[in-house]
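User: structure tokens for nuak, please.
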Amino acid sequence: MERKTYKVICKISDGGFGEIYKVNSPSTNEILVLKHLKFRGNLNEQTYIKNEISSLSSLRHENIISFREVLVKSEEVNIIMEYADGGNLEDFVSEHKPVCNTLVVDIFIQILKAVEFCHQNNIAHRDITPSNVLILRNRTIKLADFGLSMKCMSSSGQPLLCDDFLGNKLFSAPEVIRGVVHDAILADLWSLGVLLYFIIFTRVPFTGYDEEILVQQQTIGNTITTSLCIDLFQCTFLHFLKIFPCDRTRVSTVGQLIGYTCHRDF
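Assistant: Done. Predicted tokens:
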């Protein structure tokens, strides 16, 4: 690990693809995050690492964790990023449950803005979960962990479909769980619906193994319409949680609906 430039304060977590450290930059005295990744062979052949670096370095948005630099040495990559001092959304929701409707709207609109910006730049996140949504102490939301992200448009303007099926199955769209080649941007929309459900109810709507989850996904419409959440949230669920990917409503449309209803900018 690069220890000459950044001083390790503590280990934050072991991510699926690497270790996460809280670090200090002696040159600026800024607290940052270092994501330490190991690989074997040629870095140019490490698709996930390359995609993460490419996504983070190109996506500059107030609700996306900001990229500082990348340090590469023999079979190691260290990605330096902004530090979110408020933890992640999973812990926040657990500590503040039930989250009031006003705060739900505030949090979710910020998440929608981040995902919409990704999609406008033809990037799918592919791992939208509460642990990958970070919070600053001022309650600014930061979408993070682009380790599974991918470009969804080629340099010639041709759509690129996703042919791997990684990610958290509890937040994955039906086509991902079934192992079907799919449009990753449309799969992100499903994950947003599950994420909103989690923020409101502090639990996910689906549990069990793949086949059990698929059965539950088929009846999610009935579950949502009989729930105790307000009509606006029911409507939002149903816009995103469509079994057929092409039936899902785009982020911009849902964001404008929520913003108009709650008098918020989107």
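User: Anything notable?

Assistant: The beta strands are 7-14, 19-25, 30-38, 67-73, 76-82, 123-124, 133-135, 141-143, 150-151.
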